[in-house]
Amino acid sequence: xxxxxxxxxxxxxxxxxxxxxxxxxELPGGARLLCPGGRDGAFRHLLLPPLDAxxxxxxxxxxxxxxxxxxxxxxxxxxxxxxxxxxxxxxGPGAExxxxxxxxxxxPDLATLNRRIRxxxxxxxxxxxxxxxxxxxxxxxxxxxxxxxxxxxIAMPSGEPVDHWPDLWGFLLSAxxxxxxxxxxx
Length: 186
Description:
Largest sheet: 9 strands, antiparallel
Radius of gyration: 16 Å
Distance between the termini: 32 Å
Oligomer: single chain
Strand content: 15-25%
Number of strands: 9
C-alpha cells in the first residue's frame, strides 16, 4: 500500500530529527551533516538545504519534465541527500561542498543522472532517475512518473529491475534496505 505523502513527510521529519539529536554539523550554504558514527567516525548522513519553487522549476527545466509530487515534497525538505555513509544518494541540483566533507560522497546532479538512462529502451523513454546506490551502481527510478508513484532500483548498465517500492516514501522509510544489507554482510 502506498504511504500517504503527509504521513511519510512526518515520519521522514521524525527520522531527520532523531539523526540530528545524535549530532549535527551545519555547513556553509545550509547543508547539514547528521548522525556521527559513520566510516572513520564521520557523519553518516548529508542533507542539502530545501529547494524553493524557483529551484524546483530549474530542475524540471534541466530534465525537461515536471517532477513527481513525491519528489517535489522531498525537495521541499532536502534538496538532495546522501544517507548511510553514501549507500544512497538522492539527486538534486548538485552541490559544492568542502573537500573534507564526506570525501567521495556527493548527491548526484539530477540532469546528469538522467542522461545515464535515456538510451534504455527497457525503461520506455519515460523513466526519471532520482537516486544512486553506489555500492552496485544501481539507480532508483520512477518508471513512469506521470502515471505511477512506484519506484524501482535498476541495475546499470543493463537497465534491468532489481527491487521496487510502492512509492518514493516506501523506499526512503525502508531503513534503506541496500545499506542495511551491506552492513549485515560487512
